[in-house]
């Protein structure tokens, strides 16, 4: 009885989480959903007299694999959302049809088989000290060669990951002198204007005003502005709202081409000095000379 | 109960397959592959109990080991592709297309 209840609760949870994994827009949600599925499967293993596998499932999958997924997700950029455009026409429809068909076929085939009552693990572990010693005996006697090969596989995987993830520095690291030179050769040697901090507004999201009363475009923080436009918190002043919108539209239009004197995003910029990860759409100041390398050539192929 | 477990396993496997077909983000595709592997493991464990011997659990254990190795390599490849192509979408890795 207890097993039935456990099964039904966990079956509902795990199928719902699996659906969430497939259909949630944000990759981090998908990762968390996968964690839920793995945990409920671990409990199902435990219920089915496989305590060792349950522990390994939690330690290896929810512990190591999930952390690796989240780590890479953060490295690659959490906001790399899926594009909504279908590359192959009708792909989505046919994928769902195929999935439903496959699932139904499997479920019906399995459902039609009349199983005798489960033999249970009692016989397999009888005469031994329980599940873990019995498994150990199997692994280290009958399957010892497979086990040894597994160790070779793990070493190869670790080496391979190191080789793949390693990156040679092709250019020398930019010194402070180089950075200063780039900056003074660039269009804006001075620091960018700060945001307009007025009593009426929420400080950093407001553009600064020039002496003639117009808006200083470079003082707009693109990230905040984009966020506010998407969330609908545009500035109350229609002129400024229109200007911010216009700047954002120009940003969207320009794609990868650099715009001089945008507000730098400190973290991204620092990473990029290391020759590290960088988002295409994000504005950077003082990187004009370095920006010509990667992103454009794939567009103009 | 065996049937229930097997049907659940089949459902999870099918959902994972749909995810592989539908999603474009390489990492999410990878997660769906993991989901399919997990579903297989559930079937293995269920059959082990059905037949009352340990081979199913043993195979499930080896599947976990191989899956862990596969995740490490796969994610390293994804990170490498992201570095050169600036994208984790499977649509953008099309250099072999022409």
UniProtKB/TrEMBL annotation, chain A:
Location(s), subcellular: Cell membrane
Membrane topology: Multi-pass membrane protein
A single GO molecular function term of this UniProt record: quinone binding
InterPro entries: NADH_UbQ/plastoQ_OxRdtase_su6, Nuo/plastoQ_OxRdtase_6_NuoJ
Main location: membrane
Presence of keyword Hydrolase: no
Pfam families given in the database record: Oxidored_q3
Protein keywords: Cell membrane, Membrane, NAD, Quinone, Transmembrane, Transmembrane helix
Gene Ontology CC annotation, any one: plasma membrane
Record NCBIfam families: PRK06638.1-5
Designated name of the protein: NADH-quinone oxidoreductase subunit J
Species of provenance: Planobispora longispora
TrEMBL record, chain B:
Catalytic reaction list: a quinone + NADH + 5 H(+)(in) = a quinol + NAD(+) + 4 H(+)(out)
Any one GO MF annotation of this record: NADH dehydrogenase (quinone) (non-electrogenic) activity
Alphabetical UniProt keywords: Cell membrane, Membrane, NAD, Quinone, Translocase, Transmembrane, Transmembrane helix, Transport
Record's bilayer topology term: Multi-pass membrane protein
Compartment list: Cell membrane; Membrane
Gene3D superfamilies per record: 1.10.287.3510
Complexes and interactors: NDH-1 is composed of 14 different subunits. Subunits NuoA, H, J, K, L, M, N constitute the membrane sector of the complex.
Family: Belongs to the complex I subunit 4L family.
Protein name: NADH-quinone oxidoreductase subunit K
Organism: Planobispora longispora
Lineage of the organism: Bacteria, Bacillati, Actinomycetota, Actinomycetes, Streptosporangiales
């Amino acid at each position: 009885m207890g097993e039935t209840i456990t099964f039904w609760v966990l079956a509902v949870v795990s199928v719902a989480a699996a659906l969430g994994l497939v259909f949630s827009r944000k990759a981090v949600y998908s990762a968390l959903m996968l964690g839920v599925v793995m945990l409920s499967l671990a409990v199902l293993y435990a219920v089915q007299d496989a305590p060792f596998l349950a522990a390994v499932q939690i330690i290896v999958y929810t512990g190591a694999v999930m952390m690796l997924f989240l780590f890479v997700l953060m490295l690659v950029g959490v906001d790399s959302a899926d594009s909504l455009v279908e590359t192959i026409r009708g792909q989505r429809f046919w994928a769902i049809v195929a999935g439903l068909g496959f699932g139904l076929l499997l479920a019906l085939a399995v459902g039609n088989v009349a199983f005798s009552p489960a033999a249970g693990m009692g016989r397999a572990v009888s005469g031994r000290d329980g599940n873990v010693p019995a498994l150990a005996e199997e692994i280290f006697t009958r399957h010892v060669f497979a086990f040894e090969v597994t160790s070779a596989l793990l070493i190869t995987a670790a080496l391979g990951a190191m080789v793949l993830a390693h990156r040679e520095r092709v250019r020398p690291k930019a010194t402070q002198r180089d950075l200063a030179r780039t900056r003074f050769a660039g269009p804006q040697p001075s620091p960018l204007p700060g945001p307009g901090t007025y009593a009426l507004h929420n400080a950093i999201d407001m553009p600064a005003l020039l002496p003639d009363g117009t808006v200083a475009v470079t003082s707009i923080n693109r990230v905040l502005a984009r966020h506010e436009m998407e969330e609908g918190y545009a500035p109350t002043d229609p002129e400024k709202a229109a200007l911010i919108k216009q700047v954002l539209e120009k940003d969207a239009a320009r794609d990868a081409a650099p715009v001089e004197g945008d507000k730098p995003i400190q973290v991204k910029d620092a990473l990029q000095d290391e020759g590290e990860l960088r988002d295409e759409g994000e504005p950077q100041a003082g990187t004009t000379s370095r920006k010509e390398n990667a992103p454009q050539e794939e567009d103009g192929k | 109960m065996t049937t229930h477990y097997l049907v659940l396993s089949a459902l999870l496997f099918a959902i994972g397959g749909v995810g592989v077909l539908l999603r474009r983000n390489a990492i999410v595709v990878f997660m769906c592959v993991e989901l399919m592997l997990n579903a297989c493991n559930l079937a293995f464990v269920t059959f082990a109990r059905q037949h009352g011997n340990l081979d199913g659990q043993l195979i499930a254990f080896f599947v976990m080991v191989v899956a862990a190795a596969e995740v490490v390599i796969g994610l390293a490849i994804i990170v490498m592709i992201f570095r050169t192509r600036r994208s984790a979408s499977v649509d953008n890795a099309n250099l072999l297309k022409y």
